Every structure is written in C-alpha cells, then in structure tokens.
Amino acid sequence: MSHEHVSYLELLARGAATEAYDRPVLLARASGAGPEVLAELEEAKLLALRVRAELEGRRRREAELSALFATAHDLAGLRDLDAVLRAIVQRARSLLGTEVAYLSLNDQSAGDTYMRVTEGSVSARFQQLRLGMGEGLGGLVAQTARPYVTDDYFDDARFQHTRTIDTAVRDEGLVAILGVPLSLGSQVIGVLFAADRRARVFEREQVALLGSFAAHAAVAIDTANLLAETRSALAELERANDIIREHSGVIERASEVHDRLSELVLHGGGVHDVADAVSEVLGGTVEFTEADAGSVRRGEGHAVREGDDWVAAVSAGGETLGALVLHGRPDLDPVDQRTLERAALVTSLLLLARRSAGEAEQRVRGELLDDLLDAPDRDRRLLRERAARLRTDSDAPHVVLAARIDRPDGTADTDTGRRESADRRRLGAAASHLAATRHGLASARDGGTVLLLPLGPGESAADLARQTARHLGGTLREPVTVGASAPVRAPLDHPDQVAVAYEEARRCLDALRLLHRSGEGAAAEDLGFLGLLLADSRDIDGFVDRTVGQVVAYDRRRGTDLVRTLDAYFASGMSPARTKDELHVHVNTVAQRLERVGRLLGPDWQSPARALEIQLALRLHALAAAVPGK
After folding, report:
1. Which of 241, 274, 473, 580 has the fewest beta carbons closer than 10 A?
2. Could you read off the pLDDT of 274-287 as tens digits, one per residue?
3. Which of 350-354, 400-404, 492-496 has the highest mean pLDDT?
4. Nearest alpha carbon to residue 419 among 355, 478, 481, 505
C-alpha cells in the first residue's frame, strides 16, 4: 500500500474535513508525480470521500436513531408534557443543525395558533406569537397536512403573509423555514418547525427526520390529552391508592420499628439505641432529652407537634422521665406518630428497667456499707464475696466520705420536710452512681450520704473529698459539702476501722459547715490545727510539716535561724524591734529573716488564723525535738 493511500486512511481515521482530502494529490503533483500516479490518487480520493460520506451518513443516522429512541423513551415515561416537547424540539434543532426550532399548537377554543415551545429564539415577540388559523407557513402546512419548506420566507408567496407574523419572523431574523404537521389521525393539531437565519436547502432526509419528531410530539400530546380526559375520573382512585401506598409504607415502617425495638430490648439495648433505630426508620433525627416541657405533659401520652419537631413524652406512673424529640419530619403520618409514641413507651420501660437495676445495685452496695458500719464483726469471707460481686477492690486503701446538700441560709420553702426528703433521694442516687463508677460503696445515713471510695494512684483523702464535692455538686446543681476520713487500708480486713473513719468524716463535714465552707470538700489535713482535734489519728508530725516544714527544712539546708526568729517574733508580740533585742541582732536582720519566712510560708502567714497555726506548730516542733528519739 502506497504512502498516499495510508494518508487517506489516516484522514478517515481522524474524521478530517473534506478539504483535507485534496492535500495528498496536491503534494504528489508538487513532487512531480506522473499522470498515472495522479489518476490513481484521484481515484483513491474519490473512494475515500465516498467512504467518508458513508461514515458521516451512518453517524448521522445513528445520532438520529439515538435521538428518536430517547424521545420514545421520554414518551414511555411521560410525566411532564412540556419537558417532553422541549426535548423533542431541542433534539430536532441539534440534529438538523438549525439555529432555531419551535412548535406551535392549535387552540380550538380561541380559534388561533400559539407558540408552545421554542429553542434558540431570542425575540420575545416571536416567542409570544399567536396567529389566526390558516395564516403563514404553518397555516399552509395545517391546511394540506404535508411538510412545506421555504428557502426565503419573505420571497415565498405560497402562503398567506400577515403583518403580525412577518414582523415576528423579521424580529427573530429567520430566512429558511421547514414546517411539518403534527397530526392525530386526519386532524392537524399543530406544526413543528426548524429554521435558520440564512438561506439554506433542507434535504429530504432532514424533512423526514423532522416528520418523525413531529409524530413523536403528536403522540406525546395525544397521550397527555388522554391523561387529562381520564384524570378527573381517576382522581379519587389515585388518592385512594396514594393513601393505601402511604399507609402500607408507614405500616411497614411501624412493623420494622416494632421488630427493631423488640430486638433492642431482648439484647439489652439502651435509650440512645432506641433513638437511633427510630431515626433510621422514620427518616428524621430522634434524640432523647430530659424534659418537663408543658407540651409534653399536655400530650397525655400522644406525640405533639412543637414547631417543626414532634415530641413524645417518656413517662411512667405519672412521672415524666424525659421525651423523644423527632427533628426533620414536620409532616408526620398518624401511623408514624404512633410509632414515635410506641418508641417513647419502650424508652420508658428501658429507663424503668435501668432504674430498677440501679436501685437494686444501690441497695446491695448500701447494705454492704451498712454492715461494715453497723456490724463489723460479720464473717469477713462473706464480706469479701459480696464486695467481689460488686467489683470492689477491697485490698486498696479507701476513704470514708460524709456528704450532705447545703443550701444558703434563708432559703424559703413551704414544705421543708418534703424538700429535705427529696434532697436525700437525689443525693443518694448521685452518690450511688458515683460509687458504682468508682467501684466503691454508698449508703444513705444521718440525713446525708456516706461513701467508701478507693484512692487512686497519687491521690490523697483531701483530693478525693474535693473531687467528690465537685462531682456531686455539679450533678445536682446544688452545693454539696463533703468531709473525708484518713485512708483506711484494706477496709474488709479491718471493718471496725470503717465506723471510726465515718465518725471522723462526719466531724470534718460539721467543721466545714461551721467554718462557712459549704459546698467544699476537705479532710482533717486541710483544717490545720482543727484537724488535729477532729482526726482519730493525731498526725502531729504531718501537721507540723504542712505548717512550718518548709522553714525547718530551710534552716537544716542553709544553717539559718528562721525557726528561732519566728519563736522570738511571736513571743515579742510580733514586734520586730523587741525581736531584735531578744535575738541580739540588728533590726534589718530581723526584717530580712521575716521576708524569707513570708516567701516560704506565703503572704498571709501573719493573718490571725495562720499565725495561730504556725505558733502551735512551732510548739509541737520544739516538743518533738526535746523528746528523746525524735
């Protein structure tokens, strides 16, 4: 195969324009090829052009068939007549390569014709054109029920020109127009047009193609008319079918919810699992909230609408436990409303079951702690077994804490007894929950609550008291005061120490209230010398170390005389002048030493309360130094 033949194949392969096929001949002629070669190339060119024309024709027919198939598909799924007609006109314009395509329909009631769909039109006058029956090129098409084409609209005298039509056509700038009838049987109901703003010749295949589109448009219009004629008769049936379908869907959803909720209950699901399941089935977002909204109570067991939300009360025995709130479904079917109500009922059952289980565990924890406090001589092996079932680490150091709700003085209440009873229940519930999470014990006692909690790594009794006061106060949104005992090592091995520790914790609690420190948590070590009186174990060394330990340590490291200076300072009535006489040093030396003391003990060390504690600590330190072995 010669190089030139290959060139024609390449031109065919890339779909080159017709003009490109002259290039091989021109190149051969320029290179001096002989007549035979040139004749062969001319023959090859003509053959290639025929192949190209055949390929172009096939591609065009494929595009036309594809468009006709798509149009038939539109008709098969006819829902919107305007959309189908618009698609037909768009495809006609595209395949015929015209600048404009439009479709007009006859209005029998008005006795005229109007533009139904236009594509590529830029003139508002043209798009709104209405013309009398029989006028213009469309009138000729309608009269003869045959296609008509004009190469130059304004020079064509075969149809009736009118000023209105000609003005609109001129405004749009149309020159060549092809019109084909839209026929239903023998009746022409409209015309489909393809038009250009320049003179052109429409080929027979293009006329036939536009006729095919017109046939589809007529079928679409006929189908729409049939639908319109039967719509009123089918309206009630359609509504009934919609209701049946909708009810079927909601009943199916209700059945699915029932199955999902049953499975959740059987497998120990929680409140939020119920909310997630209902959210998925109802197609909105359901959340559980602790609510006492008036709308929930007014619902009397039914879901009520609040704005765009639906609210179903979660209640039991007249007590509102909360509510299920559905977002994102403002228009809720009655069956779906009952589904939400059923989910609220299941939620209340889960909450009651959880509450019952929690109350049972609280009783068991409370009974074990009561036995440790009231009957420490019980069999220790049985006590350990009971503690093990509650996942309590009986070998760890524990702290006994006494807690009580303390409101500010002057709080008015019409029924103090009922208020205090409610406080004890709330505090008991919060303390029991805390004990369960900390693997400890809790019980109601002496108008408040007693807890036995394990110490964490690096945690002190005072730390645990403060944490407990913050936790319980935050949960109840009330000031909760907590007194703590010193740590009790392995309380189940020394149950007699639990009751002793409880009395210490109660004394700390009472001291905090007397010191107007309600809402705080503290152990004896936080209360200075008062802690020595409250604690069962007199931790004198600890008190001295906490109070003046830094001054003693500084003297030991530096060889200074700060402790003796403090003794002289307090003995002199806190007078630097008399102190310097007692120590036989310059007054500036006294000032420097006292400044150092202030940096070690803090700026408030000379306040009455701190000064009293420091003086007591200095006396105890002196006594310890005087006792042999100390």
Report:
1. 241
2. 777 777 777 778 88
3. 400-404
4. 478
